[in-house]
Amino acid sequence: MAVLPIRDRAGNALVDIRFVAEDELAQLVERAVVPASLVVVVHADVVLMVFDSRRKQWELPGGMLDPGETTRQAAVRELREETGIQGVDLTCVAVAEFDLSGPARRELLAVYRIDLQAVPLLVVNDEALDFRWWRPAEPVSDSMSPLDAKIASRAFHSPATGRR
Question: DSSP letter string over 43-109?
């Protein structure tokens, strides 16, 4: 998989992924704009990707914070809305840093992870048209967000999991 920074077809760049604990994330949120959260859902050494209805590509579940929401609350809500998965305990694993285009800006996104023991019942909806389980060792297809694939791979191999 590509070395950072990497760009997607819209010109957005993933420039860094830093492993952080929840308290470190809280400190970052006090100093910087963290407008969204992503969730890496792992089951049996594969990662859940959703087919985004708007961008027409495979991505991690997640999205923008609603007013007054924390990054954790947004991650839980977006996971439920996009997949139907609920009642799970997420672990904060990282912060992803982006140089985004249209308009040009730098943003941080909170990255959470959940390891599931069983395959969940996934619910197709207006945002997520389909689901697939992706093994991080597999090549990234043209229909997959290279930024989300890199985040998924790094979170899959995070120090907290013991996987390398």
Answer: ETTEEEEEEETTTTEEE-SEEEPPTT--HHHHHHHHHHHHH---S---EEEEEEEEEETTTTEEEEE
Closest CA relative to residue 10, chosen from 50, 59, 75, 47: 59
The β-bridge partners of 50 are 59, 131
Instruction: Give the closest residue to 136 by CA, choosing from 123, 146, 124.
Output: 146
Is the CATH number 3.40.1650.10 carried by domain 6-161? no
The pTM is what? 0.93
Predicted confidence at residue 164, as pLDDT, reads 40
Distance of CA 160 to the CA centre of its chain: 16
What are 13-66's pLDDT values in tens digits? 999 999 999 999 989 888 888 999 999 999 999 999 999 999 999 999 999 999
* Cβ atoms of residues 150 and 17 within 8 Å: yes
List the structure tokens of 148.
Answer: 């989300």
CA distance 112 to 53: 22
